Amino acid sequence: MAQLKGELKNHFTMTDLGEMNKILGIQVTRDCKAGTLKIAQSAYIDKILAHFNMADANLVATPLSKKNILYCICGAKSEPIYITTST
Q1: Are 26 and 44 contacting, i.e. CB atoms less than 8 angstroms apart?
Q2: Distance, CA of 74 to CA of 25 (rounded, Å)
Q3: Phi, psi of 61 (to 5 degrees)
Q4: Torsion angles phi and psi, residue 67, rounded to 5
Q5: Whole-angstrom distance, CA of residue 60 vs CA of residue 52
Q6: Contact 71, 80 (CB under 8 A)
Q7: Strand partners, 39
Q8: Whole-angstrom Cα distance, residue 79 to residue 23?
Q9: Rounded to an integer, what distance in angstroms lies between the CA atom of residue 40 and that of residue 46?
Q10: pLDDT tens digits along 6-30
Q11: 29, 21 in Cβ contact below 8 A?
Q12: pTM of the model as a whole
């Protein structure tokens, strides 16, 4: 990773801000020990709800089941990706 950063710095003006925690408005939480990567868009959702005067709207549960399995359809052989939702 250090070599890649060095090569990029040779071609571009950049600053290393450390481990990513937010990109394009998406909150990113990485747990290396557990091997998980969590993403959340709650701040964006709150902003959109406020814009449309729906910040006080009633909440409903998502129709997504608690444990979903996703498979790569790009032709690459890989392990299934387990998506869990919190509710």
Answers
A1: yes
A2: 27
A3: -70, 150
A4: -135, 120
A5: 18
A6: yes
A7: 28
A8: 26
A9: 12
A10: 898 899 998 888 888 888 888 999 8
A11: yes
A12: 0.47
